[in-house]
Design a protein that fits this description.
It is a single chain. By secondary structure, the protein is α/β, with parallel strands linked by helices. It is 27% helix and 24% strand. Strands 3, 4, 5, 8, 9, 16 and 17 form a seven-stranded mixed sheet that branches. Strands 12-11-10-13-14-15 form a six-stranded parallel sheet, with helices on both faces. A two-stranded antiparallel ribbon has the order 1-2. The structure holds zinc ion (ZN). The site of zinc ion has 7 residues, from α2.
Amino acid sequence: MKAVVIREHGGLDTLHLDEMPSPVPGPGEALVRVRAVALNNLDIWARSGPPGGRPIFPWGGMRLPMITGADVAGVIEQVGPDVQSAMVGRRVVVNPILSCGTCEFCLSGEQSMCAEYRIFGEHTAGGMADYTVVPERNFYALPNHVRFEHAAAVPACYTTAWRMLVSVAKLRAGEDLLVVGASGGVGSAALVIGRFAGARVFAVVGDDGKAAKAASLGAIPINRNEHPRFSERVRALTGSGVHVVVDPVGASTWPESIRSLRPGGRMTICGASGGERPDIDIREIYQRHRQILGAPMGNVTDFLTVMELVVRGALMPVIHAVLPLGEIREAHRMFEAREHFGKIVLVP
Ligand SMILES: [Zn+2]
């Protein structure tokens, strides 16, 4: 099979399609013919090395060589021993959450709180290939009317955004929501989920083209170049600030994100690609009754909820581009240059 094998950290020229033996499913696993796989920060960091050279996860860095790709949709081609052969031929999307299944957190349905929590395609070989092997319990059946490209855009980012907005920040209809980094994977997911939940959504974006795109999705854009202190713009538009902020960026946007919150507002966070150590006076948080809520990835219920909404047509993932897997360099380039608004999906 063809696969993008990352063998060393480096530039775009380290990316190419290699010829590899197809993996063989073991007990409790099945082989999936990949029909679409979406790009995430994890794929970029596996190639470039993690930001600042520090491990992204508490359990350490990715081990090279590896095939990345956490967001996979495809067709089951072959099953391992003890897996029902009736599964062959089924259209599926992969739930990327891996956990022990037996600890107190897993038993209470909070798989992403498990000490053994890992992500498919980060800890295991993923879907940037013709075929990938997936544990049987990580499949979600995909009806015929859902396109593989749409399904692959959903798992990591929409599960995380649902977790942040609905499960953790408890966003309610009629509230004001600010999405920082609204053109990114989690940001664009938060924008459409915020609209779906009935919030008025303000979207911080980096240029006019992205502002137009955010507006077309029902958000009120705030161009960061025109309003580097975007909290002032938020206050001008809302009076006292927003009820909820989604900030997937980190230190570079935290101070303005926190200042955009009305007293008692909630900020929910999932990442630190923009730095880990914000320069903020903590009195700006507690004196105004503001809350900061961590939500890295969601649990299986969050995943099932967003998939169900996509299957029903209630949520439509935002897709920037669909490219052949052979154009993996262009996909990484586009992602790193921040040209995209929404997900970049590759098709083997
Ligand atoms: Zn567990």
